[in-house]
Design brief:
Strand content: 15-25%
Number of strands: 21
Structural class: alpha+beta
Number of helices: 14
Number of domains: 2
Mean pLDDT: 78
Largest sheet: 10 strands, mixed
Length: 477
């Protein structure tokens, strides 16, 4: 499958801002993008600082594109925490569009902030010197619940920031490409908490598209990959410079060009870096949010708890993975080099770990499906039964979930805690019900009961319903 063009993706980034969109997507069913726009009609449109004429132009662009108009939105994959838009909600909105013909990768679109006070607490966090914001936690959970691989992610403004973050946080094969349209880049603290492999994967898979005069993209775009950064000039002028941040301006572009490595002056770069790493910006964001609306319940109780939890969690994960890699390199360098390539088939006895756990586990296959590698039976994507195929013994789970933060008050758990605040330390009991191994190859299959099932590969991942991602350390060969 292929990807949508950047213009098609930016059209969806615009569509998700429509304030009446949620009213026309069935909760239990699906609708094509074209039918959604027909349902919206030619009435007054609102959202994203766009006029009714602006909206009609953007929607006409989508309807006239046969690929875009035929894409499907499933109501179960439409997440809108602002349907009622009260201060008790987070303002998080995401949708997944899929191609019924199978020619286009599944595409996840995250919405940016829409002006309500409760979203600005999160919006300023990429510039506050922290690792992960609450909306990043929600975006990660949203994608894991999809149970899909080779996903393209995109968004405008804060939505672009979330798309970027997923390219860094989730493994290759799960995220294919991220397009950030006028989105804030990640803070230095966020990048420092990742492994070098995660940073390399994130930068190589992220593409940025900015209007040249957009002040938001300029101020918060200090650590981008110039090779994957593109600019355009919209053939339209505004008195208010902030309007150059609108998501629909790509419709007025006279072409796109790749950024030069020195596209910002040194002073501009230093200013951008300073603004992206001032902790005080978090409080400026909270002050701005308080001006726009009362502090919401979710933010006052959870905001810093989530940030502290992820700071601790990412630090523990990085140190644990480093120790694990060193240990494996010492004891089995030949096996790692020869039989542990990403496309190696996984067999009975493979070693696994979960990024929310503290112990290694094992994959088992009691009886062969009829396919073996080096004398051992190969596992199929459907071999996910806990206690039969997935074995973790004497491990602890430190799963951090948005729902786990219920009852965690502001500042109740110190950052120095060995257990991430907001997490629940418990015995590791994986929950893989309804999930299959993701990131497999269609040309490596196993025949089971007359059906062709993809084989598990060393690069494959399995989503645990407790929030973790089970990954394969050694193929078992």
């Amino acid at each position: 499958m292929g990807s949508l063009t950047h213009e098609q993706t930016m059209a969806l980034n615009t569509l998700i801002y429509h304030e009446r969109m949620a009213d026309h997507i069935p909760r239990n069913g699906s609708i094509t993008v074209g039918d959604l726009i027909v349902d919206l009609g030619n009435r007054n449109h609102s959202g994203a600082e766009m006029s009714n004429d602006d909206w009609n132009r953007a929607l006409s662009f989508v309807v006239s594109d046969p690929v875009l108009s035929s894409l499907t939105i499933n109501g179960s994959n439409f997440s809108d925490d602002s349907r009622n838009n009260t201060n008790q909600t987070t303002g998080f909105r995401a949708m997944t569009v899929t191609d019924p013909r199978g020619n286009v990768n599944p595409t996840v679109i995250f919405r940016g902030s829409v002006g309500y006070g409760h979203q600005w607490h999160d919006n300023f966090s990429p510039a506050s010197g922290v690792t992960i914001s609450p909306h990043m936690v929600m975006a990660r959970e949203y994608i894991l619940r999809l149970g899909m691989a080779n996903i393209d992610v995109s968004g405008h403004s804060k939505g672009g920031n979330l798309a970027e973050a997923m390219a860094f946080l989730l493994p290759p094969g799960m995220i294919n490409r991220a397009i950030s349209q006028s989105g804030q880049n990640q803070s230095d603290a966020f990048l420092a908490a990742l492994t070098q492999m995660q940073r390399d994967n994130g930068f190589s898979r992220t593409f940025l598209f900015n209007e040249w005069r957009d002040p938001i993209a300029m101020i918060f775009a200090h650590n981008m990959n110039a090779a994957n950064t593109f600019f355009f000039v919209a053939d339209i002028d505004f008195n208010n410079v902030l309007f150059y941040h609108r998501p629909d301006l790509f419709l007025y572009a006279n072409g796109f060009w790749r950024a030069d490595a020195n596209y910002l002056s040194l002073d501009d770069k230093n200013l951008a870096r300073l603004l992206n790493n001032l902790p005080e910006w978090a409080w400026i964001g909270r002050l701005f949010a308080n001006i726009l609306g009362d502090p919401p319940h979710w933010c006052a109780r959870f905001y810093w708890a989530v940030l502290q939890a992820n700071n601790v969690y990412l630090d523990l994960l990085a140190r644990r993975l480093a120790r694990l890699s060193n240990l494996l390199a010492q004891f089995c360098p030949v096996m790692l080099e020869k039989y542990n390539a990403e496309d190696s088939e996984v067999v009975d006895g493979a070693i696994i770990f979960c990024d929310y756990g503290d112990a290694l586990g094992e994959l088992r296959l009691a009886s062969s499906h009829g396919r073996t590698t080096r004398g051992r039976p190969v596992l199929a994507a459907t071999d996910t039964t806990v206690g039969v195929n997935i074995i973790f013994e004497d491990g602890k789970c430190f799963g951090l979930s948005w729902n786990h933060l219920e009852g965690v008050g502001l500042g109740e758990t110190p950052l120095s805690s060995t257990v991430p605040p907001g997490s629940i330390e418990k015995n590791c009991i994986p929950d893989t019900d309804g999930n299959e191994w993701l990131i497999t190859d269609d040309d490596k299959t196993i025949s089971i009961g007359g059906a062709s099932v993809n084989a598990v590969l060393r690069k494959s991942v399995l989503v645990c319903n407790n929030g973790g991602i089970i990954q394969i350390v050694l193929s078992g060969q």
